[in-house]
Task: structure prediction
Amino acid sequence: MASTGGSGGLAPSKSTVYVSNFPFSLTNNDLHKIFEKYGKVVKVTIVKDKVTHQSKGVAFVLFLERESAYRTIAALNNTQMFGRTIKCSIAKDNGRTTEFIRRKEYKDKSHCYECGEEGHLSYACPKNLLGNRDPPPKKKKKNKYDE
Result:
């Protein structure tokens, strides 16, 4: 019995790229900017140490379309990025996919979740090596009277 688990109909096991050996200093937004060249990125999840919250140089990049994931692998696997040879492959489904697909709600928007400092959000964090990224457009709430 298959469950979509809140993935919105995506096939995450077919459209998620496992990326390893990238520099620990790259942020979620940096990876978003790198990978959006190959297709619509739905979500980037950087694996971090549970105690120090530092990147382990490993991430999962979920694309909207499977073709984008394969294009990314063809273009970036075994290439040099910031002096490191990165590896890219289709992620293996370990049954925990739905944990990572769910959209996180950041209720406290008084500080950045990348660096923890106040005064900016992660989209404009000074730690983003590749510069700022535009936040996604806000979804319009549907009015039951709209047709």
Remarks:
- Residues 1-9 have pLDDT under 50 and may be disordered.
- The first helix runs from residue 12 to 15.
